Amino acid sequence: QVQLVESGGGLVQAGGSLRLSCAASGFTFSTFAMGWFRQAPGKEREFVAVVSWSGGSTRHADSVKGRFTISRDNAKNMVFLQMNRLKPEDTAVYYCAACTQRWLWSDYVPESFDYWGRGTQVTVSS
Predict the structure, then answer these.
(1) Which residues is 24 bridged to in the sheet?
(2) Residue 104 confidence (pLDDT)
(3) How high is the pLDDT of residue 99?
(4) What whole-number distance in Å separates Cα of residue 76 and Cα of residue 94?
(5) How far apart, in whole angstroms, are the C-alpha atoms of residue 28 and residue 18?
(6) How many CB atoms lie within 10 A of CB 52?
C-alpha cells in the first residue's frame, strides 16, 4: 500500500535550518507530483511547495519563497524540503503529499493530493 513517511523535524532557533525528508513506497513514485503542506494549531492545512514528477518544475508558497526549497530523488523515492532562515511562524506539523498527476499548474490545495504522510513537527523558537 502507499506509504509516505516524513522525518527531519525538530526544535530549532529562529534563523536556523532544517531539512525534511519523505520516504515514499507502494506506488510509482517517479510519475507523481509531490508536495509539502503544513498545519499550525488552530489553522487550516496550507500549501508550502510542490515538485513535478521529474523534479524539473517547482512552486513555493509566497510565505516561504527564497527560504525553502523542495527537491526529489526518484532513484531513492524521496522528496525533501530544505528550510533555511526559519521563523517562529513556520512552526507547524509538516506533511508530505503525493498527487497522481505529474504536475499541478494551479489548485495547490490539500484536495488536489491523493496520499498523505502522518507529518513531522517543526518548532521554531524565537
Answers:
(1) 4
(2) 85
(3) 95
(4) 21
(5) 27
(6) 18
Residue with cell 523542495: 70
Per the model's pLDDT, the better-predicted residue between 105 and 51 turns out to be: 51
Q: Do 116 and 26 touch, CB atoms closer than 8 A?
A: no
Total residue length of the chain: 126
DSSP assignment of the chain: --EEEEE--EEEETT--EEEEEEEESS-GGGSEEEEEEE-TTS--EEEEEE-TTSS-EEE-TTTTTTEEEEEETTTTEEEEEE-S--GGG-EEEEEEEESSS--SS--SGGG--EE---EEEEEE-
C-alpha to C-alpha distance for 105 and 58, rounded to whole angstroms = 10
* pLDDT tens, position by position, 81-118: 999 999 999 999 999 999 998 888 888 999 999 999 99
